[in-house]
Design the sequence.
């Protein structure tokens, strides 16, 4: 058996950590996996007829795959890596919720791909010293994209705007920035690996599996999944409000237990 010191999270010793983690948070994992199964089985019912619905299906799939990856990573006691997935999950949720509420947001979201391409190619032209992209007339493509931008009157669609439209600004100003610290490897976040009295007096640099706070991460993942599920249910009229309400109630019961434990 290899140890964490030998191979990190790829070590065979992680199997024991995973068993202990799943046992410790068994109710959370059980509910997450049950909710995931329900969502997966709903996918064939999401028959799309227009761009709004097509984008909603794609975003729901992305949300669902990120939900699943969060479960996998928490089982492996990879707390920080789960936070990165949860930030991406929130971004998918903001967009999904916004476009299911307002069809015009779906068109704005779709058109913003032109700005993303324009920005990418413009930066490439400005900063790259390597050869131009094979088979691409860079100047011509940038000019074409810029013309499309002006003709369509495309305005940049930010994560903040999507969160506001989705009615999820509370997420955007609370959990989202904290998760962003981890995603961007900010000093606030990476300091967890270092122990010492000051920058000049480092006592230890450590890295190890983490089991504390797994329930909080699964709580966030499940809440995002439930809101996403509610969004597609409303758009596609799936008649799943009863089942969603039941999952929501069970989720809130676990959340209340978590709050009680923290107070204790």
Sequence:
């Amino acid at each position: 058996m290899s140890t964490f010191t030998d191979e990190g999270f790829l070590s065979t010793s992680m199997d024991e950590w995973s068993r202990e983690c799943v046992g410790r948070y068994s109710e959370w994992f059980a509910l997450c996996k049950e909710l995931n199964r329900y969502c997966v089985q709903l996918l064939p019912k999401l028959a799309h007829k227009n761009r709004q619905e097509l984008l909603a299906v794609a975003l729901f799939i992305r949300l669902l795959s990120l939900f699943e990856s969060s479960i996998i990573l928490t089982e492996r006691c990879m707390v920080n890596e789960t936070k990165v997935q949860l930030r991406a999950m929130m971004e998918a949720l903001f967009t999904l919720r916004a476009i299911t509420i307002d069809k015009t947001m779906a068109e704005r979201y779709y058109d913003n791909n032109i700005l993303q391409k324009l920005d990418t190619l413009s930066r490439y032209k400005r900063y790259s010293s390597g050869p131009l992209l094979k088979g691409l007339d860079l100047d011509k493509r940038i000019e074409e994209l810029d013309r499309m931008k002006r003709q369509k009157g495309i305005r940049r669609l930010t994560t903040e705007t999507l969160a506001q439209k989705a009615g999820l600004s509370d997420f955007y100003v609370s959990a989202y920035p904290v998760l962003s610290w981890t995603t961007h490897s900010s000093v606030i976040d990476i300091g967890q690996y270092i122990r010492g009295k000051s920058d000049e007096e480092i006592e230890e640099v450590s890295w190890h599996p983490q089991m504390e706070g797994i329930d909080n991460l699964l709580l966030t993942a499940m809440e995002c999944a439930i809101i996403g599920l509610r969004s597609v249910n409303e758009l596609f009229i799936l008649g799943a409000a009863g089942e969603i309400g039941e999952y929501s109630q069970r989720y809130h019961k676990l959340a209340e237990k978590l709050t009680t434990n923290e107070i204790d």
